[in-house]
Structure formats: structure tokens, C-alpha cells
Amino acid sequence: MNRKSIVLALMVFMLLSVTSLAFASEAVAEGGASDVAAAAIAIGAGLAIAIAAAGGGVGQGRAIASAMEGIARNPGAAGKIMTPMIIGLAMIESLVIYALVIALMLVGKI
pTM, whole model, 2 decimals? Predict the structure, then answer.
């Protein structure tokens, strides 16, 4: 069994266990979140930030590596390569910030 399938199976197991507990628990009166629902929201917010940060880090690393390779091949084009790279890095980082905002909104529901 490779590493990806182990991680996927673990994530599915965690999701199913939290979901089954959420359905089995009684809801708190007047729309409040139960302890299990609050835990599921906290886990979801943590996973959102973790996945977004990992994806953003990989994306930024690949963008910088490609830009540095292009500059190494043609040092005269450094100015033309650097500006689009900085704009691309800002766009990648904005997606991570959006994930942070959504995670904070989820935590606000607890």
C-alpha cells in the first residue's frame, strides 16, 4: 500500500467517525452546536488551513524554481521574468489567505 492511499484511508476514516458521532449526538437547544459538531468544525478549519498552506507552499516553490531556471538560462530576461513571478506569488498567497478567512469564519461558529 502506498503512502497516498494510507493517508486517504485515514482521512476517510476520520471523516466517517466524526460524521457518525455528529448524527448520533443530540442537538443542543436553540441552534447551538453540540460538542461533536464543534469538534468537527475545528477539525475542518484546521484541515482547511493545513491543505491550503501546503498547496500554497508547493505552488510558490515551483513558481520560484521555474523563474530561477528561466533566469539561469537567460540572465538578460531577469526583469521580464521577475515581475510576473511576483504577481503569481501574490495570487497564490491570496488563495491561502482566503482559506484562512474561511477557517476563521468556521471557528466563529463554535
Answer: 0.63
